[in-house]
Design a protein that fits this description.
Elements (H helix, E strand, L loop, with lengths): L9 E10 L25 E11 L4 E6 L5 H8 L7 E6 L14 H10 L1 E4 L3 H4 L6 H11 L5 H14 L16 H13 L5 E5 L7 H18 L2 E6 L2 H7 L2 E6 L2 E7 H6 L4 H8 L3
Parallel strand pairs: 3-7, 3-8, 5-6, 6-7
Antiparallel strand pairs: 1-2, 1-4, 8-9
Helix pairs in contact: 4-5, 4-6, 5-6
The protein binds adenosine-5'-triphosphate.
Adenosine-5'-triphosphate binds next to strand 2 and helix 1.
């Protein structure tokens, strides 16, 4: 088993994202009045309720759950695509230490995204400019992270395309001409182009053929092995999480219902919903 440093790289405490005003019924600790993630008294939806997690250096944390369980909202909050209702986010980095990053200015959030984060979306259209060449897509992120030397950016871009197995003779092509698997590879290269300590992967294999899925999963594992980047991987598919994640959180109705080493969860699932997920793999 992999060993991780003792201090988490990223820590989230009690992240809550609600849509609606909330009321006395759903505002109580533990939110006893909710039906699933919904308050029948005031109509508020709790997409995420009091979610806490940590990710250690070099670790892959998996987040699994059915549609509507809150995984995407959680990812969007961590990536600052959404404002949280409550909660704290800290990253153990000399430039960011001690700050609740959910509370910083939008300029500072942009800095963190450009310098500390990589993101790979399920839909490549969200992560790539389809009318820029593959290498220009990478350059766009390099420039956002402060890159200015064209020669250096070009050689780093070529190296990244090589890492993700995009043939260099295709680097000037627009990703719209690429297959779904190739588009995901370019997204991964772009996400890595600022040397981020943390990479987010949101349903990155969903919708791909099984063989292409397997190749993308292999690539992600290879990147973890070679670069030691911490990753948060969201998927509705426990089979994907099983192949990738060192530790796993299971979400249901906006809450974390179970967490632990992925192997332990697979061998001894406690919650009835997790048991269902595990049996569906058999
Ligand atoms: N803008 C919004 N307004 C109200 N409710 C929302 C909004 N966005 C999401 N929700 C609700 O929040 C809950 C969590 O949604 P979320 O998309 O995070 O789930 P998910 O697990 O990622 O599912 P999927 O994979 O289908 O996107 C759902 O009940 C959803 O209906």
């Amino acid at each position: 088993m992999q060993r991780f440093e003792e201090r988490p790289l990223l820590e989230v405490e009690n992240l809550t994202k609600q849509y609606g005003p909330g009321c006395d019924e759903c505002g109580q600790p533990g939110r006893p009045g909710l039906i699933k993630n919904y308050c029948p008294s005031c109509g508020t939806v709790y997409a995420c309720s009091d979610v806490s997690l940590d990710v250690f250096p070099g670790e892959i944390l998996g987040i699994v759950g059915e549609s509507g369980s809150g995984k995407s909202t959680l990812m969007q909050c961590l990536y600052f695509d959404q404002e949280v209702t409550a909660g704290t986010l800290t990253i153990s980095d000399p430039e960011l230490a001690g700050e609740n990053l959910f509370g910083v200015s939008s300029q500072r959030k942009r800095y963190i995204r450009n310098h500390k984060y990589g993101m790979v979306y399920q839909n490549p259209v969200k992560g790539l400019r389809m009318d820029f060449s593959a290498i220009s897509n990478i350059a766009e992120k390099q420039i956002a992270a402060g890159g200015r030397h064209v020669g250096n950016m070009q050689s780093a871009g070529e190296r990244l395309l090589d890492v993700v197995s995009i043939p260099l003779f295709r680097m000037k092509e627009e990703p719209r001409n690429f297959s779904g698997g190739m588009q995901q590879r370019v997204q991964i290269a772009k996400a890595l182009s600022n040397d981020p300590p943390i990479l987010f992967l949101d349903e990155v294999t969903t919708g791909l053929d099984l063989s292409v899925q397997a190749a993308v999963i292999d690539l992600i594992k290879q990147i973890q092995r070679d670069l030691g980047i911490s990753m948060i991987v969201v998927s509705h598919d426990l089979a994907v999480i099983r192949m990738l994640a060192d530790r796993t959180l299971v979400m249901l109705n906006g809450r974390v219902i179970e967490s632990g080493l992925t192997d332990q969860i697979l061998e001894d699932p406690h919650h009835a919903y997790t048991q269902q997920l595990v049996y569906s793999l058999l």
